[in-house]
């Protein structure tokens, strides 16, 4: 750059900055971050509750069952009506016992052309075994999975309804993972680890779009029980500490500090692990975790009592509110 050009640039810069200085009487207000001005739409907890209920009405959504395929159809129709594009990812994988099985991940995209994207996930399958039920005769009975599965999906369906009515610039991808909950039943005493989150294992290695990227991800699991406890899940804190801290800070600002506590919760091998490891997307798990020795999961986890009685719209509402605030303000 020539000396004279440089000088002109300086003069112009001074001119423009003095202009803006004159225009505004409150320079402090001018420098306030724009993000604070965003109006975050309202999450309807009763609507989310009805989406949970409607999933349960199909019966347990055990992969390869009739209820599973009917629920898939209903979910795909729903997201087709709310989102811009719906991808259905059919895949075949292997269970803990080596048996082959078909699965279906469902991805609903809003603003598919936007570069900045946020990934929101939950699992839509329900567990074929109530292997943690106190009644041993129930150990091979499929569960409703009201909290374990349907609650997260219900919240994301309501988010989709809200996004449809309140379009935003950020791209949002809602992913419903299949085959999260078909891990080996406890009574077999198999020391296995990678037999959970099969849909996420598949998607993270074969994303619906080649080279798919997202700025960050939020996974919802067991987000519907009354009086929930959401400590910061251990692996989430390891993989994405700043995201985890930001989300919890926002929850606290919204008045949910009694539930979104600052403790570190147990490490959970959930869908977010593979999204972090294989897809390289920082994703955290918002998951109800208790802090006792026998089980870190919510009281009716993998029992036949994980039914609609355990769902409190208030919990769905606070989680939905947190998610909406994160995606509209971050
Ligand atoms: C393990 O128990 C190793 N993972 C369970 C993750 C899970 C099951 N989330 C919901 N159901
Ligand atoms: Zn489960």
* List of distinct ligands in this structure: N-[2-(1H-imidazol-4-yl)ethyl]acetamide, zinc ion
Order of helices and strands: HHHHEEEHEHEEHHEHEH
What general form does the structure show?
globular
Q: Portion of residues in helices?
A: 25-40%
Low-confidence stretches: 1-29
User: What would the average pLDDT be, to the nearest integer?
Assistant: 91
CATH class membership: Alpha Beta
Our estimate of the beta-strand percent is 15-25%
CATH architecture: 3-Layer(aba) Sandwich
Q: What's the CATH topology label? A: Aminopeptidase
Q: What value does the Rg take, in angstroms?
A: 22 Å
Per CATH, the superfamily is Zn peptidases
Count of β-strands:
8
Report the structural category: alpha/beta
Largest beta sheet, briefly? 6 strands, mixed
Our measurement of the CA-to-CA distance between the termini, rounded to an integer number of angstroms, reads 38 Å
Widest sheet, order of strands:
1-2-4-3-5-8
What is the total number of structural domains? 1
Number of helices: 10
């Amino acid at each position: 750059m020539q000396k004279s050009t440089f000088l002109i640039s300086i003069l112009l810069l001074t001119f423009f900055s003095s202009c803006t200085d004159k225009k505004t009487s409150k320079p402090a207000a001018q420098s306030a971050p724009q993000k604070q001005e965003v109006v975050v739409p309202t999450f309807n907890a009763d609507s989310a509750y009805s989406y949970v209920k409607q999933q349960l009405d199909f019966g347990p959504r055990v992969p390869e069952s009739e209820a599973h395929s009917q629920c898939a159809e209903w979910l795909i129709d729903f997201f087709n009506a709310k989102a811009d594009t719906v991808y259905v990812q059919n895949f075949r994988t292997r269970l803990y016992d080596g048996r082959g099985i078909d699965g279906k991940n469902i991805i609903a995209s809003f603003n598919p052309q936007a570069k900045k994207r946020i990934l929101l996930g939950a699992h839509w399958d329900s567990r074929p075994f109530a292997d943690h039920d106190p009644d041993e005769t129930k150990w091979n009975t499929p569960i409703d999975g009201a909290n374990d599965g349907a609650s997260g999906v219900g919240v994301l369906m309501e988010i989709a309804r809200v996004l449809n009515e309140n379009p935003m610039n950020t791209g949002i991808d809602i992913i419903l993972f299949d085959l999260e909950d078909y891990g080996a039943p406890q009574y077999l005493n198999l020391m296995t680890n990678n037999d959970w989150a099969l849909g996420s294992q598949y998607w993270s290695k074969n994303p619906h779009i080649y080279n798919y990227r997202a700025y960050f991800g939020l996974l919802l699991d067991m987000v519907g029980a009354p009086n929930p406890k959401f400590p910061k899940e251990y692996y989430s804190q390891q993989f994405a500490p700043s995201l985890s801290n930001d989300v919890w800070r926002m929850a606290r600002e919204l008045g949910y500090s009694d539930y979104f506590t600052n403790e570190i919760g147990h490490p959970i091998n959930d869908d977010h692990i593979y999204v972090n490891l294989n897809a390289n997307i920082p994703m955290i798990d918002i998951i109800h975790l208790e802090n006792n020795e026998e089980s870190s999961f919510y009281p009716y986890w993998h029992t036949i009592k994980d039914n609609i009685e355990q769902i409190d719209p208030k919990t769905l509402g606070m989680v939905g509110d947190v998610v909406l605030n994160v995606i509209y303000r971050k």
